[in-house]
User: Which sequence fits this backbone?
């Protein structure tokens, strides 16, 4: 439990009720009826005041028999925790590891455990790109690498980075670089020779 030099119970209760992230890492609250402890910013249902205990650190809450909330992850050593960040990171990794495959939004959403609609909206809000746009960026970056570091022609590169249609590859490449793949490859060769 807390010592006398810490925040008053009223301040901690107000931070808990308002889900105030400014207090994350300064204290934790535990709910006697559920056996769970949380960060002040946790968006779970507000507990009854009589069922709450406050702790200065996660270790003390765990020592008293409370388990960490799966929503706000107070057991992690970070001051703040954004559960949606892992969805973004996992989506990016999935795309980067599978860019050359015929990958669809439904596959990605299933892989990260959310609906396609939710993933599309969340990813766009956080990165300003849809997963499809991110996939295209990854493919074009890989194509640029291949065009400047291998002897593959632009058609071979297009297929190798996951495009099923060469016209789609050319259009996407030109949209991103302002060059056709062949022009880009020629410019890359010029730079190497000069």
Assistant:
């Amino acid at each position: 439990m807390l010592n006398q030099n810490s925040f008053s119970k009223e301040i901690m209760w107000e931070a808990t009720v308002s889900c105030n992230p400014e207090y994350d890492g300064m204290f934790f609250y535990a709910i006697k009826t559920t056996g769970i402890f949380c960060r002040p910013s946790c968006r779970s249902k507000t507990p009854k005041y009589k069922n709450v205990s406050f702790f200065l650190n996660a270790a003390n809450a765990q020592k008293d028999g409370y388990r960490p909330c799966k929503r706000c992850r107070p057991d992690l050593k970070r001051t703040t925790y954004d559960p949606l960040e892992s969805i973004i990171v996992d989506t990016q990794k999935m795309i980067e590891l599978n860019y050359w495959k015929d990958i669809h939004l439904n596959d990605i959403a299933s892989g990260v455990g959310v609906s396609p609609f939710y993933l599309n909206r969340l990813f766009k809000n956080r990165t300003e790109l849809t997963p499809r746009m991110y996939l295209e960026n990854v493919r074009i970056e890989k194509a640029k690498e291949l065009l400047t570091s291998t002897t593959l022609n632009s058609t071979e590169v297009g297929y190798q980075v996951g495009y099923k249609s060469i016209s789609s590859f050319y259009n996407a490449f030109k949209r991103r670089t302002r060059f056709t793949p062949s022009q880009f490859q020629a410019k890359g060769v010029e730079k190497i020779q000069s």
Q: What stands out?
A: The chain has two domains: 9-68, 82-194. The first strand starts at residue 28 and ends at 31. Residues 131-149 form the longest helix (19 residues).
